């Protein structure tokens, strides 16, 4: 049973389908692992034992009757604590929402439950999901699997830790500027930022309504494809026969290569070389207009966040961690006409980006510019926190600003990943490319 804790979600689903794994036993194995884990309370905000067991019993009965609802029917996963769970606290990592208990599930949780996924509980996150580092002094800071003294990445910090520490087969997080992909990179996982609007955010606590997306954190690209299907109630992308031969990748130069840590750059360049050895052509591509997009991103994000959080924040600002408070309040003075004009300009830049990258199957870049920062230094040095937070969010934010679908893949170098970006709406094609890339990277490490 201990092997189950480290198996892919897809393999667990296949084991259930073959009758080799009973969902009840699988659920109990995960619940026992969670309950005895020394860092349980730093990873899970709440464990939903009763719900998980009830859902596992139902999955077991379906499996025995040959009526499974999906390939992941009976597989236990975790949920970031900003997705509403009926009758169970959903507090978004902030004291401003302490004691909040919704009366219905978030739409993606409702759909996933209808596909047979088992809800293990709610994972910790950066306060209101507004940081890429994963440090949260208001609730808890989850661990990084590669460095006990470092932060895990955010904002889906507990989501990543739950998978990386063998306490969930997969996790559901949100990505507004990199919140699925940064913790995936720093914990050697696969993270999928879906196209904006593809998955419902109804019943999830909003951060920036024009950028919030839902996505899975997993062990494999196959798991990400199956999770996406379960979250939207559809069929998974066909990954069979995926190959890099004949693919043409653009290696983005603008913004994403500035001030990259040496270890990260080495791991990234080695990964690119592996993609080339597997048959892909990789060509440098620059989009200078991205510099302007990043200049605009601060008012676009903070105005959106302040609109969503103003009433709760201003009613009791002392309850919020000061670094998050200052970021939210940064949107207070953004005027409506300025905000709308910025969005018009961003749409123009998106068109320029689309034209510049149209000749490529995908665009690649380093996953995060730095390795996971030291937690104590972040606590002690406010300027270090600010700089490292913006740096962590930089490369991932390209996809959010440009309206892309994006996949984070581990390279085999601890806490170093690559991003593969494609046009919005091409999630299935992205997953096929990602499956081929992951196979090449894994083979290179064998």
Automatic annotation (TrEMBL):
Gene3D superfamilies the UniProt entry points to: Amidase signature (AS) domain
Domain of life where this protein originates: Bacteria
InterPro entries for the chain: Amidase, Amidase_CS, Amidase_dom, AS_sf
Domain Amidase per the UniProt entry, residue ranges: 26-430
Signal peptide (from-to): none
Cited PANTHER family: AMIDASE AMID-RELATED, TRANSAMIDASE
Protein name, as recorded: Amidase
